[in-house]
Amino acid sequence: MTPADKLLLLMGEGVCERRSVIEEALTTSYRIVEWRPADGEAAGIAMMADAAAMVTGGDALMKGPVFKSLPLAKNLKFWQIPFTGYEWLDFAFVPAGCVVANAYGHEIAMAEFVLGAMLQWEKDFTTLDATLRTGSWQHRGVAVNDFLQGELYGKTLGIVGYGAIARETAARAAAFGMNVAAVSRTPRNAPAPLSWYGTMDQLPVLLAKSDFVLLTCELNDETRGLIAAPELSALDPDGVLINVARAGVVNEDDLFAALRDKSIGGAILDVWYQYPDANQLNPAAGGPMPSRHDFASLQNVIMTPHCAANTLGSDIRRYKNIARNLDLVASGKRPATYIGEGPAPR
Amino acid sequence: MTPADKLLLLMGEGVCERRSVIEEALTTSYRIVEWRPADGEAAGIAMMADAAAMVTGGDALMKGPVFKSLPLAKNLKFWQIPFTGYEWLDFAFVPAGCVVANAYGHEIAMAEFVLGAMLQWEKDFTTLDATLRTGSWQHRGVAVNDFLQGELYGKTLGIVGYGAIARETAARAAAFGMNVAAVSRTPRNAPAPLSWYGTMDQLPVLLAKSDFVLLTCELNDETRGLIAAPELSALDPDGVLINVARAGVVNEDDLFAALRDKSIGGAILDVWYQYPDANQLNPAAGGPMPSRHDFASLQNVIMTPHCAANTLGSDIRRYKNIARNLDLVASGKRPATYIGEGPAPR
């Protein structure tokens, strides 16, 4: 990129809000312009035609005319998606020679979420608190001086996929005295702190040994429906499935049946089969139920609205990493979190 | 102790229930007898008069005729209390030459409870779950794609008292990237993983630097009311007080006022100012509210019914440690968890 090319377009409210984080971390002198939905689509299309680099993402954008004008972005050399998942992205729309990167920084928040949810599963703060507030020194009808609460200590956490989220989770789980095992695509010796590591074909072995099974893999043709009835029945009857990846990794019907029939111990689900439109995510609006099945009728599920990554800390770390990518690209290097580039003729 | 002295009395339902754990771990041939409340007080008094060693505890016992007959236990050389706290114990009742020990094994459960409660504080699984079950993709009225959730990463945990519970908690908190600091009675260099260590007179320094303050000290004349209005106001306005020690370490009126007036961020309270009688701890009975103040009206408190230690794992580890003490005493040694001995003339 030459100095003249250094027009950096920040698109969307959330991206523009982190301008100062990007600016403070950048060592390259980009000329930054901002586009917000209120500026109108015509302005957005014009700005994209000039930009050398762009930070924007989201399937709201995917569906909008701004995104459709992407093939017209004749100067675009770098598109930075400001989060991790890009299963929604069709590279056919990306201009030839435009490099695309995704962004990390949320793995700490995700790992904390997973440990917190497992501890909530074992300790049940929700019921303890609600019950004591009524003046009852019981827990689900049993005296609190009985030994009702579980422990993570000595239990096995089996992780499917071994990327950044898995590694941060494994480190924390090991500090709790958990055995941590994993399967992933790449054959290798078990990296610390794992007690066991296998390839994806050894998933049944992992399922059989795990008290908690954590899904962290990406959703692709290999992982779609990876966990269905046979895999769920390989799990211990007390086993707990944790999905912070994508709902599509788990067969919706089979998961609901296993939970309803109590053939597994339970599930901690942060990712879902049905989502609100972007405009239902504001405080005033409602949204659809997260599945066509009535998960809300089940007591053996902890349900959360795809929020495991949503900490301020995640976002700040993410935008610091984005600034690093912008610096790399400006000096002619590949971004640290390269995911592909466009074939589309301009 | 001579072989003839090796009559070991297990008193109470909970103690008798762990007979097999003691027997499996013991390397000494004690002759074990069991007493349960249903056997009647006369039987208990007679058995105590013969026993060389005894495992029993609890303030129910303290108030009962069996306990009052303790000075008559003319052969008793060792009394093992099967838990940690003994602030209820008056050594004046203990026969001369009878050594008393308490028991640990719950520190892992306590550490898990503390980390779980801090994560519940930051993530709020309770509200997330309840809200999504209604079909709303919000959290306390704010869209979930905002950055609402907190993190432990980078925050400071300040611990008051640095015994077994504190050490287990510190190790786990450090794995979350927390800074961990502590004050305790004993002057020493900061042991790993602490970033700072001070003596009790430096409590104000600890309070000023902490995001979470965890009380793990025992209740005694030095610690009674240790945390009152001045200490609470030294805490950050977002600071969270965690009490898993004894309620009496914190001034009841001042704590309620600080929470009600939101001059501190919140509290996680597992120990209380008012408790049920032992016979209210069964499932059918109710109990008193845990304080004369209406903590149940506050939203900035996580309230739990003194259950942080109550895991099966705690109890089994505890009775294994009790067996080790019984072995030590049988070979003429002091128990590993000696707390004192009796002055009472027989």
What labels describe this entry?
346 residues; 6-stranded mixed beta sheet; 2 domains; Rossmann fold; alpha/beta; 7-stranded parallel beta sheet; homodimer; elongated
**H/E series of chain A:** EHHEHEHHEEHHEEEHEEHEHEHEEHE
How far is the N terminus from the C terminus of chain A?
A: 18 Å
- Largest protein interface, residues of each chain: A-B, 69 and 69 residues
User: Quick one: CATH class of the largest domain in chain A?
Assistant: Alpha Beta
The tally of structural domains of chain A comes to 2
CATH architecture of the largest domain in chain A: 3-Layer(aba) Sandwich
Query: What about the largest sheet of chain A?
Result: 7 strands, parallel
**What is the CATH homology-level superfamily of the largest domain in chain A?**
NAD(P)-binding Rossmann-like Domain
pLDDT below 50 for ≥5 consecutive residues: which ranges of chain A?
none
The CATH topology of the largest domain in chain A comes to Rossmann fold
Radius of gyration of chain A: 22 Å
Oligomerization status of the protein chains: homodimer
**Helix fraction bin of chain A:** 25-40%
Strands ordered across the widest β-sheet of chain A? 10-9-8-11-12-13-14
